[in-house]
Amino acid sequence: MSPATRTSHMPRPAVLVLAALVALVVIGALAIALTRPGAPLPLVAPAAPAAQQRVVQVPSDRSARGSVAYQGGPVQLHPTSYLIFWGPSWQDDFGALNAVGQDVENYFADMGGTPYENILTQYCDAQRRCVANTHELDGVWIDTSRPKPDPGCIGAHTISDTNIQREIQRAIQQAGWPTDSENAVYFLYIEKGYDVGAGGVYQGMLPGLCAPNSLYEFCGYHDYSNLAHVAYAVFPYPTDPKGCAKITSDRDTVSQVLIKVSAHEQFEAISDPRPQTNTAFNSDNGGEVGDKCNTQFPPQETVLHGNPYNLQLEYSNADRACVNQR
Questions:
Q1: Strand pairing of 302-304 and 24-26?
Q2: Which of 61, 126, 246, 256 is at 20 to 30 A from 48, Cα to Cα?
Q3: 121 phi and psi, to 5 degrees?
Q4: Cβ of 174: how many Cβ atoms within 10 Å?
Q5: What's phi and psi for 144, nearest 5 deg?
Q6: How far is 11 from 16, CA to CA, in rounded Å?
Q7: By the 8 A CB rule, do 49 and 301 touch?
Q8: pLDDT band at 317 (very low <50, low <70, confident <90, very high)
Q9: Mean pLDDT in residue range 141-168
Q10: Domain spans in the chain, listed from the N-terminal domain onward
Q11: Strand stretches in the chain, DSSP E
């Protein structure tokens, strides 16, 4: 998880998460050298049914290597989210966002002002200004056009990171959203049937292969777009039974997988919004705040404004542990 590698979230059977180019959720136990920052880890371990909310603290497997180090970059002081659903299948029969998309939207609507988001308030910038527990969901937009694969990528249905950034730029323009480079993350969800090429390059391979690819290696990632000038995160539809579709349990629904990966990338994008060029909280020996707890879940679901979610633990420097609230 050096600041020279991309951040990602990885699936089973050995889910890796790359933490610098973006937060990639990666498949397989193979360590991948990328040209972007950060490296996420595997998600495993199902959570028990929802019950009464309680504080959970679990020593991180990586906590012995120290806290998530501050590298001098910015954090998002007033977190805001915008959701983009790319592809006509995100609409239901009435033209509204379908049930899976609504589940994802509900998580973003619920997470602000909670003990869960409060974990982030300990992460501060060089001026000692800290993340506020005031997350807002400011926009949801469905792009009913078909996603655009890149003919230069291996695989007929692979969307390059360049096309992903172009889509985010288009969404901002079409939806009339502000270009918020300081406090917003723009989350892009791609309909079923497409892979994503994160734009990194394997060590020893030629560039231009649109690798690593979500078909084999990750479930989502975050980065900063020099094209749209905003922080963003992208999520292919989790359909691979060997990877993202069973990220913590064979019983996981598509909604549950997308919410888990979204929360992982959201926490990292807020505490490290520019992982490639001006990284903030991202340690060489442990990755970002989601990476250090990537395989760890509380025994019960985390309750946000009365609604239960199966969310991974996030790393707390103050507790030197993975926690689900502060």
A1: unpaired
A2: 61
A3: -70, -10
A4: 11
A5: -80, 0
A6: 7
A7: yes
A8: very high
A9: 88
A10: 8-323
A11: 8-9, 16-19, 24-26, 38-40, 57-58, 80-86, 136-143, 158-160, 184-190, 195-197, 220-225, 230-235, 302-304, 307-309, 314-316, 321-323
